Amino acid sequence: MKSHDCHIFMQRLQSIAFKDLSPKPIWEVLTELSHFFRDICSTVLRVKDMEQLEQNIVVTLCKLEKIFPPGFFDLMEHLPVHLAYEAKVGGPVQYRWMYTFERFLHHLKKK
Questions:
Q1: Which residues contact 65 (CB under 8 A, 6 or more apart)?
Q2: Where does the record place the DUF4218 domain (predicted)?
Q3: 3-state SS of the chain?
Q4: What is the pLDDT of residue 78?
């Protein structure tokens, strides 16, 4: 999967994919995580919403730590804690992420 595919999976498909496969408490936490990624990637961002996301993601990650074993977590699992602040400071992600450039380079390779 390319980075854009992972992005869509995390935002939209994760909560649907695991709904019938996992117990309700696990599905709810995965859905919270999915909604977090969807919210920070929206085209309109409000500072108060980003501040709320900053607070909520810490609780969501604590819930994940209760469900999954410690070996599951590495340095990347703490990254969402910083993403809401980055979105608050940097603005909407479509101006900062590389998907546009990835598509452009892929288009050049086809020619």
A1: 73
A2: 40-110
A3: CCHHHHHHHHHHHHHHHCCCCCCHHHHHHHHHHHHHHHHHCCCCCCHHHHHHHHHHHHHHHHHHHHHCCHHHCCHHHHCHHHHHHHHHHHCCHHHCCCHHHHHHHHHHHHC
A4: 81
pLDDT digits (tens, 9 = 90+) for 59-92: 999 998 888 888 877 777 788 888 888 888 888 8
List of residues 6+ apart from 16 with CB closer than 8 A: none
Q: How far apart are the first and last CA of the chain?
A: 22
Whether the full predicted model's pTM is greater than 0.70, yes or no, is yes
Among the listed residues 27, 56, 41, the one whose alpha carbon sits nearest the alpha carbon of residue 86: 41
* Number of structural domains in the chain: 1
Residue 95 in tokens? 């101006």
| Contact indicator for 46, 38 with CB cutoff of 8 Å | no
